[in-house]
Amino acid sequence: MRVAVFSTKPYDRQYLNETNEEFGHELVYFEPRLNRSTVPLAQGFPCVCVFVNDEVDAHVLLQLQQGGTELLALRSAGFNHVDMQVAEQLGIKVVRVPAYSPHAVAEHNIALLMALNRKTHRAYNRVREGNFSLDGLLGFDLYGLAVGVIGTGKIGEAASRIFHGFGCELLGYDLNPNPNCEALGMQYVSMDELFSQADIISIHCPLTPDTHHLINAGTISKMKRGVTILNTSRGAIIDAQAVLVGLKSGQVGNLGLDVYEEEADLFFEDLSDQIIQDDVFARLLTLPNVVITGHQGFFTEKALANIAHTTLENICEFEQSGDCQNLLDAKGVKAS
Ligand code: NAD
């Protein structure tokens, strides 16, 4: 199939090209994100392939449909950046990569936690400058701490297994409890119980209207003082302004982010010679108890290979049958 592939970096192209030897699609790469300005580039492509920060709103979808696009192939599990209802109304099918490596994201989540806990980011710089003082590097034992896992699907489960290995007590909140997590000893509790009992809150639910700003001034006030919050899911689950206030007061003890609500204008680009205009983000970067990475949870060799393979296979399946096992419906669940 002829595919316009947006938001592509050299590493995306490398994995897609290698994998495409098996599939033989005509892949045309575009470096920019798909949005209202760039959508004319997709004119005439039956398939358009996008990543997490492309803006596939109603306007873009209408332009795609008028340009002959039948299939939108997401290189991600999350689909919060697509107006699914409009896609269905316009008859554009949407396929995604439901799982490429939950372990990649779960392991990165732990990397954030361990850096925050043992201050590795600070220790690294100090030691390089010949400063071997331990002041300010005091950490805590994870063993015995209560971890509240919000969203216990594939990534939440993989993260829970790691927390379990550390000897943490597992609290869970999910609309659908996961028996594999229960088998680890996870106790499912209400959201309020999770907030009040957890030493560490690890977020792995999707971004939906229900989870938008789930972490806000009100919910932060219910948490244990000094709580550690980890978010490798989607930025808008956290109200960053509220968490900044919490960090300044000490109510929030540590913050580890791989995602940020306004990340689309920041992440995946080298902006090192520019002034960051987002004051909340810039302030967060100054705090010693905040570690932020630029949406790299998925960024492992295995995950990139799996993303490329499932994406190109999804396109093949659709081309051959008009259907696909990874097709989403208007609500974003697998269409039957
Ligand atoms: P999943 O579908 O396997 O699990 C999501 C879980 O969240 C499900 O168990 C679901 O029941 C639960 N859930 C849905 N709504 C909820 C709510 N309102 N409250 C509590 N739980 C709710 O998805 P996954 O593969 O584990 O991925 C989780 C999220 O991780 C994705 O939606 C995506 O946003 C994010 N993600 C981030 C990266 C990264 O690079 N940082 C990579 C992949 C995925």
Write structural notes for this entry.
This protein has about 325 residues and is of the alpha/beta class. It folds into two domains: about 1-100 and about 300-330, NAD(P)-binding Rossmann-like Domain (Rossmann fold), CATH 3.40.50; about 100-290, Rossmann fold. The chain has twelve helices and 13 strands. The chain has helices at about 10-25, 60-65, 85-90, 100-120, 120-130, 155-165, 180-185, 190-195, 215-220, 240-250, 280-285, 300-320; strands at about 1-5, 25-30, 45-50, 70-75, 95, 145-150, 170-175, 185-190, 200-205, 225-230, 250-255, 290, 325-330. The strands form two sheets. A seven-stranded parallel β-sheet has the order 8-7-6-9-10-11-12, sandwiched between helices. Strands 2-1-3-4-5-13 form a six-stranded mixed β-sheet, sandwiched between helices. The radius of gyration is 21 Å and the shape is globular. About 45% of the residues are buried. The model has no long low-confidence stretch (mean pLDDT about 95). The structure holds nicotinamide-adenine-dinucleotide.
